[in-house]
Amino acid sequence: MTEGGHTARQCRCCEEFGRRLYAEAWRRGWARADKKVVLGDGSEWIWNQAALHFPDATHIVDLYHSREHLGTLAAKLYPQDEPAQKRWVIVEKDKLDDGKIEDLVASLRALETSHPGSAKDIETEANYFEGNKERMRYAKFRQQGLFVGSGVIEAGCKTVIGRLKRSGMFWTVRGANAIIALRCCQLSGNFEDYWEARRA
User: Fold this and answer.
1) Tens digits of per-residue pLDDT, 68-95?
2) Inter-axis angle of helices 8-27 and 44-53, to 10 degrees?
3) For residues 8 and 1, is the Cβ–Cβ distance under 8 A?
């Protein structure tokens, strides 16, 4: 059974994640934050949860993920011509980086006549950018001092989670959660405090 492209189980997982994220944000002082931002890739489920739990926050699609969409489309438009791919991406990337999404979408839609074999791919990407345009005002976000990329967070996740993904390692959810909690305590400098609290 599917709901909006996801299985019912995936939707429940997304909803549970949204509730947990909401609770954690409030626990960490969401109410006191001067600037509130939700930063994610273009996945629809993320923005559904953001709209539900954080409607007043600034929503930003990760710039790197947006740029990947341009690169993917360039490869389809110019499959055997890497220099043409690069030239095309440079021009379109400037529009994206400047937050001129309407110009980018118009440019993409203009390609449909010159690349009829890629019309479906062009339409998909044009719709992606159009649907996320308010989340892609990168120049405006930078002027406000906001991050437009999730690289720092992803690197942090790799630092914490990386040790769980070594050769031959298999974890139950409970076991992985326990190790992640200990790893977070260690990396945050709270390892000794954790054990002191456990002894008390």
Assistant:
1) 999 999 999 999 999 999 999 999 999 9
2) 40
3) yes
